Amino acid sequence: MLLMYNAWLVERKKRIKKETKEKKIKRSTKKQSSETKCNLNKEILLVTNLYVQELERLRQSRTVIHVDEIASSIARFYEKIRKIIDWKEDNALRRGAIERILKRILFPKMVGFRMKNFDSAGLAQTITEELIRGGHLPNHRIPKSRVDVVAEVLYKYLFFLEDIYNSHRDLNVKRKNNVAIFVLEIAACEIEEILTRPVKELGVMNAMVYILNKRIIVTPEDLLSKKEKFELVNISTQRKLYQLDDNYIIYRLLKTTYPNWKKPTEKEMKDISKKMPYIEESSYKQINRKVNRKFDNIAQEIDTVFILFDDILEELNEKPEKIVSTLEDKKKYIKLLKEVYNKRNKTLKTRLRNSAIFSTLSVFLSNWVTFYLFEVPLAKLFYEEFNLSATIVDFLLPTFVMFFLVIIIKPPKKENLDRVIKASLSYIYNDEGKEEYEVDIRDKKNTPVRIFMHFIYSLSALSLFALIAYVFFLAKLPITSIIYDTFTIALTVYAAVVVRNKSKELSVGEDRSFSDFVLDAITTPVARVGSFLSRTWKEYNIVAAFSNFIVEIPLVATLDFIQAWSEYIKERKAEVN
Asked: Against a cut of 0.85, is the pTM above it?
């Protein structure tokens, strides 16, 4: 009995020791889990849940639109040509295609036509099918129900167009056309949003706005209301996170200003229509004030965090049910963050090169057309001519400027990844440090030092333009072409600066060398002039206007015939037993 008791006692001690060890392991694991799993920032959790719901909704079966693949391959090739002609950033290409379709179909019918009675359902179908054919929307993926929503929205914009031409009698023809183009550009923004349903992108953008708004401290506080501050943060976030253009920012602003913008009543549409010329004129000023730049600088510092968060959500879209749990695990998040960072870093150089190629080709093509339609006739008017060397310089110098400014772009340094991880954790999780930003919105007084800096800046700008003009003068270009090509260089420099800014999409904190400072000092004055010229480019882009009506109308008719013929052949084939 004693031996049995001793054996039982030894076994009991072993069991107690084992249980104690297991409890310690569980406590350790629980502690480690509490350290690893953290509460997500509520704005981050909200956008994640909304994205999960959208992914689940997309899994449901629905009737989708499809177009003929043969017609689609021709249309996609044409869209690549249009990318050169239009000189747009990638995020604006699809919207640019919508604008072209609207202008091509509606402009010939605007004067003296009751626009609101136009076939909005047919127009919505045409827009959707042409976008799919051109590769701007995926084939066999867009539900037909979205086309019905686009048709409802189009009625509102057709109402605005009719009212502009029939009611605003105080406006001259050019002013009416500018307001009408503005209406079509805003319409393109809403149509794109309906067809693409960018739930993830809008959610990430809203999360950045709310988080950043809490961390920005404005001084002095009494100069800016909470609503104005939120609006400024919202504008800067849209501009820096996804490089959204002014038209889309204005569209989002209109939705905030007019709560019933999506489905306004007849009375509300009339009220908005009366204000439309004022809206068109004041909106651009509202989103491009001096104070906006101060918020832009802060948004640019942290946009990398949310760009990569967007990439992580995209990586996890195949398993929506595991997105939240994966994000809650800090170790898993850091691992994913490194993966998407490295992936984006590898493609950065290629994307920058493509941007440089398309923007340079756009300038080159426009230069070619204006050379024969504008420069040569104008030179002959003043009894001047082009020689071979002058012609070569005329075409190649802007290309060389673009090539040089892009080739010297440097990728982010290795230590940048550590800064990205630290910054990301502070915005995604609640238990990390929260950096605050102070914005002094007071206008700086014109002290003698600032007046001197203004003078140096203006003098350097004039000197740079004089130097560019002198290079063309040495090449023996006609005086008219010297003036024109000098401003073409400004456009090219502006395009190159935009490309260089895109190269900083992964950078957190400023790594600015002396060479960067010198380059900024040289390019900024010229780029600012180029920025102004680019805003008016669409009014004078002869190649784009020519393509919209002379090329696209017969091309679209041909593509429609190809699609109809393909469907006819399929019907006949189905009859063969």
From this structure: no
